[in-house]
């Protein structure tokens, strides 16, 4: 009844969304603040009659708006149904099982190996440094690979590479292999490597509206890169689903991109709350990896990550526990509103003292 491919699928496990009680949710890296109020105004006045028509298959106006924000032509922008779909199209277009392994960090976004299984792409996990940072030298040393991908900041660690390190990687890697920098969390303190796409034809930047622009519920993602790479993604899209973004999503995303005041205000609040939380937890003896994301990765001696997760959940607060070898003592905690983080700090004060 089922295909051989299906029988070997290992799906991605999203952060839990339990319905049995009300939780403070700090487990899925959602933005704690609402999107631009201009989006609410748009939705209230939206012409419902437009929904009987198919949306713009190329998301042309949205791509133009994104391009203007990053000083790129629309031809260097691809828009898709969330960055996960964009990444899936990237895996299909640029990586295969004939040119060596796809390289990505040993601890990274757990959808990468899922896509590799889906598309039959061999992969190799590159070890992180002792401080859990990514070393570009480790990738430069590799000679036989179909491509490279990693988040920056990395997830779930939160560690960050400066654009100068990305440039070093691009200079010293094969020009016939695509390198993808997954910048889902770049807006929370890092500097995007987007300017490098004009220097390196094999560099692709992937971003999302889900985090810093509070639109996780609309599923809008995009890629920035050389015209040839973008054209390849369009070919994959049109071979799978010509209309990945609905009309409301395209228009709301444009509004979110244009409302820079709201964007800057919200991301600044999250950054300030992150630093407040880090300082408080460090004073309580918690070990926290450096983070430029909207989450932190923490642990403490004499208590396992699973225990931290379970004790917090029992108190009505959700965090993310991965349980992978090497990071099993850590939990990832999304930065919520300051009042939510104060609740977290008080709970961890109790948990960490046992």
Write up what this structure looks like.
The chain is α/β, with parallel strands linked by helices and 354 residues long. It has 2 domains: 4-34 and 261-351, Aspartate Aminotransferase, domain 1, CATH 3.90.1150; 37-259, 3-Layer(aba) Sandwich (Aspartate Aminotransferase, domain 2). 38% of the residues lie in helices and 14% in strands. The chain is built from 12 helices and 12 strands. It has helices spanning 4-7, 37-45, 60-69, 82-94, 111-119, 136-140, 163-171, 227-240, 247-258, 260-283, 305-314, 338-351, and strands at residues 24-25, 77-80, 101-105, 123-126, 145-151, 178-182, 203-208, 221-225, 287-288, 295-299, 317-318, 331-334. A 7-stranded mixed beta sheet has the order 2-8-7-6-5-3-4, sandwiched between helices. A 3-stranded antiparallel beta sheet has the order 9-10-12. Helix 4 crosses helix 5 and helix 4 (82-94) crosses helix 8 (227-240). The protein starts with a helix and ends with a helix.
